[in-house]
Amino acid sequence: MEYKFSDRCKNLEGNAIREIFKLISRPDIISFAGGMPASLALPKDDVLKIIDDLLTSDRAIALLQYGATEGYAPYLEAGREYVKRVGINTSDSSEILAISGGQQGIDLTFKAFINKGDVVLVEAPTYVAVPHIAKTYEAKLVGVASYEDGINLRDLENKIITENPKLLYLVPTFSNPTGKTLPVEKRKEIARITAKHNVILLEDNPYGELRYDGQTIPAIKSYDEAGNVVYLTSFSKTISPGMRVGLAVASAPVIRKLTIGKQATDVHTVTLSQAVATEFLKRGILDESLKRNIPVYKEKRDAMLKAMDKYFPKSAKWTHPSGGLFIWVTFPSNVDVSTDIFREAIARKVAYVSGDSSFVDGSGKNCLRLNFSNATVDDINKGIKILGELLKERVEGKC
Amino acid sequence: MEYKFSDRCKNLEGNAIREIFKLISRPDIISFAGGMPASLALPKDDVLKIIDDLLTSDRAIALLQYGATEGYAPYLEAGREYVKRVGINTSDSSEILAISGGQQGIDLTFKAFINKGDVVLVEAPTYVAVPHIAKTYEAKLVGVASYEDGINLRDLENKIITENPKLLYLVPTFSNPTGKTLPVEKRKEIARITAKHNVILLEDNPYGELRYDGQTIPAIKSYDEAGNVVYLTSFSKTISPGMRVGLAVASAPVIRKLTIGKQATDVHTVTLSQAVATEFLKRGILDESLKRNIPVYKEKRDAMLKAMDKYFPKSAKWTHPSGGLFIWVTFPSNVDVSTDIFREAIARKVAYVSGDSSFVDGSGKNCLRLNFSNATVDDINKGIKILGELLKERVEGKC
C-alpha cells in the first residue's frame, strides 16, 4: 500500500551517527566515530552483584512490577543527592524525573514546549541527535556561533531577539561534538540572558563526570533563579548505555509536563536500571568506577592528541578537551572531509564522523569529530597515523 | 516564569489510570483498578538466573554497551519465532522492532502516521492510554460502536467513509477494557476493510497469552496482505512490566519509520530486558511460567464472576472474558459510577476504574472496569461483596 506518513516523518532519515554505527560495527575497522564508553570500562561484575542483591531482596517484586512514571523513589532520592555535585539543589522529588537515557529528556522537553515552526537555538556545531529530534517536532533550528570557550554570548542574545526562540539547547561541559567547556562566568550570563528573555535552556550534561584535568564546574542549572532551566544527565557514560537510565531536573510544573509526556510513550523507565544506578550511587561504586576509568580515558585522550600532533596536517586545528569523549578537528574551509575522504578513510579501515551532521545549515564539511574513549591506545596510534596520512595526501595540497 | 507549553501539552493531564495508581497504592485498599500481572506471578528467580548467565557470558559487554535501535539481534530472531504463535510470518528482521513496552509501539505508530487533526478510530470503549497519546499528537479520536463480539463492522465501515481516518486502534484479544475477543471471521473482515480503504490498523495484543478457555485465535496481522497492519505485543503481562520490553511487527517501510522515530526518543530498548525475554522464549521458560500462572488467573476470574453473580445488582451486565485481565460492567444509562459512588468505594477501601476514561466523548459514566489479576481470591471475594453492596444501595433504587 501507499503509506501516508506524517509530515514530521515523511522525509526523516536516521540520525547520521546511529546510521554510521551500522556501517562501522565491522570488527576490522578502527572506529573513532561513536560516542561509546570503553567496553572494558563497563562494570559488568558490579551490575551483576547489585542485581543479585536486588532480586533476592524483598524489593524484587516491586522492581519487576509496573512502576510510577515519575521514577523509582529511591532513585529519585539518590538522584537529588547526585546532582548536588554540580551545585543543583532540588526542594523535593517533584523537581526530578527518571528518564530512559539522557536523550529521552531532550525528546520530552521538545514535546512539552515545541509547536510546529517554533525556533530552537543550538550551538553550531551541536549534538547530532538534536536536529533529528527537532525534525520530529517540526521545529526550526537556528545555530549560534561557537568560540574557543563555547557559545558566543553576543550572537546568542542577537538570535534570541531576532528569532524569538522557545528553547536553547546546550552541552556546556565537554560538549558533544567539540569537547569544549563553558567557563563559569559565561554560565552565569547564559542563565541570566535566557531567564531575561523567557527562553527555556535545555542543559544536557552526559559527560560531566569524565573530567581528566581541573575541577568540577557548577551546572548552569545551579544559577537558575527563574526556573527556566531543564537539566539532563545520564548514566550511559559512567555505568552502562545499554541500561538507558538518566535524570531530568527542572521546576515542578515543567517536570509535571515531562512526566505526562513520558506517560504517553514508555510509561516508565526500566525499574531495574533505576535500582542499579541507585546502588551505584549509594554504595559509592560509581565513584570507584570513575576512579578506575578516568586514568584510562585520560591516557587515550593524551595518546590521540599526541598522535594528532605527529601525523595530522599542519593546517588542521583541534580542540584539547579537559574531559568527555571527543576531539573536534577543523580544516580550512575549502577542505571537504564528508564524502571522498570519508569513504577513503573507511576503505583504509578508520572511521570518524564528518562535521556536517552537527550543523543545521549544511556547513561543517571541513570538520570532523574523533572519539577517543572506545579504541585501545594501540588502535588510536595506528588509526590516527592512517587518518593523518590520508588527510595529508588529500588536504595538504589545498592549503 | 510563565511557561509557554506546546499546544499538545498545554491542557494535557495524566492518563486516568496512571493517576489513580497513585491514589490506590495504599496497602489497605483492595484494588481492581490496575492492569498489573499478579505480583506472585512475576518470575523473579528465573529473571535472576538468566541475568546471572548473561552477565557471566561473553555477551555481557554487548548487553551493557549501546545497542542498535532496531533491537538486539537474538531478540528479534526469537520474536519472529514467537509471533508465529498467532499466525504471523515475517520475511526477515526488517519487519520487526524491539520496543520499550507495548505502549511505545502505539506512540511510535502515531508519530509515524498522524498529523495534527488526523482522525484515529477506536473501539468505544478503548484502552485508556490511547486518548492520552492521541492528545500528544493532536489527533481527533472517533469511537466505533462495540457489540458483544467486539467492534461493529457496519459502524466501522461507515466511520471510515465519513471520517477518512488514518488509523484504527484495536485490542482484538481479551480487550482492555472489556475483555472481549473478536472472532476469526470478523478479524478477516477488518483486515479486508482497512486494506480496502487504506487505513492503518494498529493491532495491540498484550494479553493474548493469558487465555483461560478455548484455543488461540490468529492475529488480524496474519490476514494482512496489503501491509497495512502494525502488530504490537509485549512481555509486560507474561514476564515483567518493569522491564519494559515488547515487539512491533509491520511491513519493512513502516518498521523503518518506527525505528527512526524511536531513535529520536530512547535510542534503543534496554538490552538486558531484550536478552532476558530472549532467554524466556528460547529456554521455554515463558511457557512454563504461563502453565503455572494461567490456572491462578483463571481461578481469580472465576472467583470474581461468581462473587459478582452473588453480590452485584441485577440491573448490571458484565462481560465473561475467556482471557486477559479485565471484566467490564455496564449499568443502566441513568447510573453514574464515576463520581460519588467511586469516592464512596474508595472510602470503603475498594478501587475500580470508571468507564468514562475509556470513551472519547465523555460517555461511559455508567460503566466500570474490574481487574481480577492482581488481588488475592480472598480480597476478590471481600472487595466484590463491598462493591456489590455499595452498588445495590446506590443503584437499585434507580432501576
Structural features:
seven-stranded mixed β-sheet, Aspartate Aminotransferase, domain 1, four-stranded antiparallel β-sheet, Aspartate Aminotransferase, domain 2
What does this structure look like?
Chain A is α/β, with parallel strands linked by helices and 399 residues long. Chain A folds into two domains: 7-43 and 287-398, Alpha-Beta Complex (Aspartate Aminotransferase, domain 1), CATH 3.90.1150; 66-284, Type I PLP-dependent aspartate aminotransferase-like (Major domain) (Aspartate Aminotransferase, domain 2), CATH 3.40.640. Chain A has helices at 7-10, 16-24, 44-55, 60-64, 73-82, 102-113, 129-136, 153-163, 184-196, 252-263, 271-282, 285-311, 340-347, 377-395; strands at residues 30-31, 96-99, 119-123, 140-144, 146-147, 150-151, 167-170, 200-204, 229-234, 246-249, 317-318, 326-330, 350-351, 353-354, 367-371. In chain A, the strands form four sheets. A seven-stranded mixed beta sheet of chain A has the order 2-10-9-8-7-3-4, with helices on both faces. In chain A, strands 11-12-15-14 form a four-stranded antiparallel beta sheet. A two-stranded parallel sheet of chain A has the order 1-13. The radius of gyration of chain A is 21 Å and the shape is globular. The termini of chain A are far apart. Chains A and B meet through α1, α2, α3, α4 and α6 of A and α1, α2, α3, α4 and α6 of B.
